[in-house]
Specification:
There is one protein chain. The protein is built from no helices and 11 strands. The chain has 124 residues and is mainly beta. The strands form 2 sheets. Strands 2, 4, 5, 6, 9, 10 and 11 form a 7-stranded mixed sheet that branches. Strand 4 and strand 5 form a beta hairpin.
C-alpha cells in the first residue's frame, strides 16, 4: 500500500519561500501522476501543481512562475518549491498520487492516494 508523507510547511512572511517534500513508501512501481493540492478553511481542495511519470508538469494559473514541482525518483520524493508567497497561499498542502493516467491532473477527486498534509501560513 502506497503511503505519502509531507514535510516542509511552516510560517513565512509575504514574499518568502518554502520547499515542501513528499516521500512515498510502500509501492512497487512508479505512480503515473503525482501532485500538490491545497485546502484553505471553508474552501474546496484545489490543485496546485502536478507531474507525471514522463516529467510533464501542470500548474494552476495562479502558481505559474512562482511554484515549481519536481521529483527525485531515486529518493521517491516529490517537491514543491514555492517562492513569492502571498497570504492567499495559506492552506494545508497535500501530496497526492495516482497509479493511472489522469486526463485532468489538477482535479483532486481523480487521485486516490493522499498524504496527511503540511500547513503553510503566509503572513502579510
Amino acid at each position: 500500500q502506497v503511503q505519502l508523507q509531507e514535510s516542509g510547511g511552516g510560517s513565512v512572511q509575504s514574499g518568502g519561500s518554502l520547499r515542501l517534500s513528499c516521500v512515498a513508501s510502500g509501492y512497487t512501481r512508479s505512480n503515473y501522476c503525482m501532485g500538490w493540492f491545497r485546502q484553505a478553511p471553508g474552501k474546496e481542495r484545489e490543485g496546485v501543481a502536478t507531474i507525471d511519470s514522463d516529467g510533464r508538469t501542470t500548474y494552476a494559473d495562479s502558481e505559474k512562475g512562482r511554484f515549481t514541482i519536481s521529483q527525485d525518483n531515486a529518493k521517491k520524493t516529490l517537491y514543491l518549491q514555492m517562492t513569492s508567497l502571498k497570504p492567499e497561499d495559506t492552506a494545508m498542502y497535500y501530496c497526492a498520487a495516482s497509479t493511472i493516467m489522469i486526463i485532468e491532473p489538477l482535479s483532486a477527486p481523480k487521485y486516490t492516494i493522499w498524504g496527511q498534509g503540511t500547513q503553510v501560513t503566509v503572513s502579510s
